[in-house]
Amino acid sequence: MTEPVKNTLLFAVVGGLILLTGFTQSWNAAILILNMGLISAIMALGVNLQWGFAGLFNVGVMGFVALGGLAVVLVSTPTTPGAWSAGGFGIVLALLLGAATVVATVLVAQKMPKGRVRTLSIIAILIVGFFIYRAVLDPNTAAVEAIEPAVAGNLGGLNLPVLLAWPAGGLLAAGAAWLIGKTALGLRSDYLAIATLGIAEIIIAILKNEDWLARGVKNVYGIPRPAPVVGYEVDLQNDPSFVARAEWLGLDTVTASTLAVKLGYSLLFLIVLLVLLWMAQKALNSPWGRMMRAIRDNEVAAEAMGKDVTRRHLQIFVLGSAICGIAGAMMTTLDGQLTPSAYQPLRFTFLVWVMVIVGGSGNNFGAVLGAFLIWFLWVQVEPIGLWLMSLITAGLPDGSALKAHLIESAAHMRLLTMGLILLIVLRFSPRGLIPEK
Amino acid sequence: MDFLNALVALSNFVLVPAIAYGSQLALGALGVTLIYGILRFSNFAHGDTMAFGAMIAVLVTWGLQAAGVSFGPLPTALLALPFAILGCIVLVLVTDRMVYRFYREQKAKPVILVIVSMGVMFIMNGLVRFIIGPDDQRFSDGERFLISAREFKAMTGLNEGLAIKTSQGITVIMAVVAVVLLFWFLNKTRTGKSMRAYSDNEDLALLSGINPERVVMITWIIVAALATTAGVLYGLDKSFKPFVYFQLLLPIFASAIVGGLGSPVGAIAGGFIIAFSEVTITYAWKKVLTYLAPENLEPSGLVQFLSTDYKFAVSFVILLIVLLFKPTGLFKGKAV
């Protein structure tokens, strides 16, 4: 079997699995899998860029995804009336002061001669800067958070179309990645891993605690949909031409409207995925892509050839994180709400890693395939596990504690299965389903 | 008097909790650092190994409690600890045989082993959730306090109380015992010396006839014992919740790296540095400062530098500072 045939078959199999879901469970479920699969594929492309192209070990995917979600809130939700005059500008001023403190510290660290004077002045700048920052920030955040805390209590957004939030999510993630990369790249791979793991937790902590930003754990609801591609079910049900089309298809109007809304998302996501995939393919086969792989395979040799390894690493780290940010913004748009406590590292960082490794790191199509396959399994393992458990426990008497426990625990089969899949692929097919060429 | 009150408040809210937390982190970081020294990779599954060991301890404790066995004023979990360690040893040895050994024989790159440990992390996490569920479990019993705040106030006549939980006392004692045993083992016994030799220079160690598989096996056994102890102590002190152990990964790694990966002394120092910074920076200093400051200069706010939810940020910032200025850590770790 030639390579293209095999790959097409693999994609066909995954597509078939999703279609099977549609026929056996419901089309709603199938399109849900498809939509999150598309988003996961974009995340996997980002990780593949960093790991597959450049060998950078980023386990902070969750953080960048969450930043994308934050961007959606900041760009597309309506501005809270009075929030900016109450304290918004004060908060911005405080943040600028905080940034100035850091910049001053870095300048002092670079410009002053080494010695006790430098250490003391750095400490002094940091302490004074911190207290000024808190003194400006605290009253302003309190003022913003006091505005209608039940429905708002945050600054709100710019009230722009939600589609603009997607590139904005990428930019926000890229900015954060640049800051992290500036400090943590150039360190050893394990250190970068721990650093990114930490930064992701911090980003989630900020989202959870800074109520003025995105309402913290009170969540932001009612994020607008990307009209006109994705409408609202109620509008569709009241639209006579839509009702007529639904009847022609033999669907009842309510089901048809939910399907139409979801398919609208699928269309948008597919366009983004195809554009990014095309760009990633171009990058992979360009001189730039070859240089990246050369750096990955032998840093010393690449450096001897005059390649600036640290700069290139920074570049690809920022690019990959930006893609994760875009995916995060798309996901929050799909959900229609931002729920900071829903961001779990196992789901948003390590699962994406499983997708990339299983699909084939270094190969963009592999990453996309892995994303769809693993997402499908992630969703379907639960019902399969439940079914399996009822089969196993069929012989046990009803009401036995063991039976109840086993059936209840079936939900946790997911993690176990993902771990097994990852280990099996790493052992027997370490290059993944579609290996790098 | 005010000064004494301030001191007591400081001990009660900062020193005692930080010492206990530091001991738990140190035990965890020792495990990470040993794996790094001998097997040469960062074990992402360490938090979940701790959770697994602690889970067995919880289950055995429940069994003992149901059978009416108790340890008097001490928590029953201490009786369960040896069983938990055994269970955890079995788990890690099986994992090593089935998973890690293959890559060791292939001489795979360390980063591959890290990814493999991610897979192991998933499986252990799944196992723990599968067996005991993702919820909070309480398993501490016995006396709750060595000294309760009320007793202390009555004893000394101070305004401030000092409470020391039994779990905190046990944590410190157990940590000291574990560390003394570990260092005795590493420095005085033949096996321990062979482990250090293997860690320092693999080729020379192999040349002098040290059996690498034996070294690796003993490392896993020690790591399982340390991880279980740390997990049980943390569970007794706070509560047992699988996800929390996963989150401990960050401060534990920070401790190990700050001390210098591969250096046991560094891991202990790192654990206490991280714990003390976390607690001091997230503690609201108002009470202590009110006692210390002159009459009318008392602070009006809480004087809390960061809210407790940002404790990860503290370990992270310390980690970054150390990495930027002293990449091999405070105690000269190794760099692979």
UniProtKB/TrEMBL annotation, chain A:
PANTHER family linked to this entry: HIGH-AFFINITY BRANCHED-CHAIN AMINO ACID TRANSPORT PROTEIN BRAE, HIGH-AFFINITY BRANCHED-CHAIN AMINO ACID TRANSPORT SYSTEM PERMEASE
CC terms in the record's Gene Ontology section: plasma membrane
InterPro entries documented for this protein: ABC_transp_permease, LivM-like
Membrane topology term: Multi-pass membrane protein
A matching Pfam family: BPD_transp_2
A GO term, aspect molecular function: branched-chain amino acid transmembrane transporter activity
CDD domains given in the database record: TM_PBP1_LivM_like
Membrane spanning residue stretches: 7-23, 29-49, 56-77, 83-108, 120-137, 157-179, 191-207, 263-284, 314-331, 351-377, 384-405, 411-429
Subcellular location: Cell membrane
Keyword terms of this UniProt record: Cell membrane, Membrane, Transmembrane, Transmembrane helix
Protein name: Leucine/isoleucine/valine transporter permease subunit
Source organism phylogeny: Bacteria, Pseudomonadati, Pseudomonadota, Alphaproteobacteria, Rhodobacterales
From TrEMBL, chain B:
Gene3D superfamilies: ABC transporter involved in vitamin B12 uptake, BtuC
Membrane-crossing residue ranges in chain numbering: 20-39, 51-71, 77-99, 111-132, 168-186, 215-236, 305-325
GO biological process, one term: L-alanine transport
CDD domains associated with the record: TM_PBP1_LivH_like
Superkingdom assignment: Bacteria
InterPro entries in alphabetical order: ABC_BtuC-like, ABC_transp_permease, BCAA_transport_permease
Subcellular location per the Swiss-Prot or TrEMBL entry: Cell membrane
The UniProt record lists the keyword Repeat: no
Membrane topology: Multi-pass membrane protein
The entry's keywords: Amino-acid transport, Cell inner membrane, Cell membrane, Membrane, Transmembrane, Transmembrane helix, Transport
UniProt GO cellular component terms: plasma membrane
UniProt GO MF annotations: L-isoleucine transmembrane transporter activity; L-leucine transmembrane transporter activity; L-phenylalanine transmembrane transporter activity; L-valine transmembrane transporter activity
Similarity-based family: Belongs to the binding-protein-dependent transport system permease family. LivHM subfamily.
Protein name: LIV-I protein H
